[in-house]
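Mods, move this if it's the wrong board.
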Amino acid sequence: MQKNKTKAKLKAGEVVFGSEIMFPSPDAVEILGYAGLDFVYMDTEHSATTHESLTHMIRAAEISGATSLVRIPEQLPGQYPGYILRILDIGAMGIIVPHVDTKAEAQAVVDSMKYHPLGKRGMYGGRQTGYGFQMSTSDYVKVANEETLVVIMIESGEGVKNLPDILTVKGIDVVQIGSNDLSQSLGYPGKLTAPTVLKAIDSVIAVARKAGVPVGVGSFASFPQDRIKRFLDAGVQFVNIGTSNIITSGVERWREWLDKAKTGK
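Not the wrong board. Structure tokens:
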């Protein structure tokens, strides 16, 4: 199992930068890693990505030096163990769990991701031990507990209200704000800059920072520049830009370059 550079940087108080990929492509993951991103955030909640595709995408992240994070679909807490287990067992270095609204749900997440004595994850000694050639299962348990990144998503008014209680659960590494779902929960679907939505986002950032837990804002690139600066000034460390945003901005930049080249201006 590799060192989780994203987790190490967060612990050191640094800002980490990654990209959310909504389609199954190991090649795209590998390119993002070689481009220097700290992590690649592979989505299975809103995409067609399968476990088989994830296996190859996780390997691509390992090859290119990016931390592999996987967002699971929304689950009931009792379903966490089986779903999370399979993704960690194929090599993911962190799991992003959507719609965590209560302390009990947060505890169920940690229990599913950590081995004894930190949790109740089912035992496995497969590919992350080099199939037993590079590390013993007992050594892997220790390393996995240290290196696996636990990310919970706050995406509702209930989650915002319960966040101080949620963050009493030991083992949460990052709070990611699901901005779009939060806007819908608060009655302003898709209106990320509605005052009520921004107030809730600012509240989550403040509560997480007070608890010493790194925080990220979903749909980061959809906010105006002055708001993005405000988020960073407030201590947001987990920065995630969608792969589609990166591709689009790159295409736009090259179009501008070609237009200037053609006109000589």
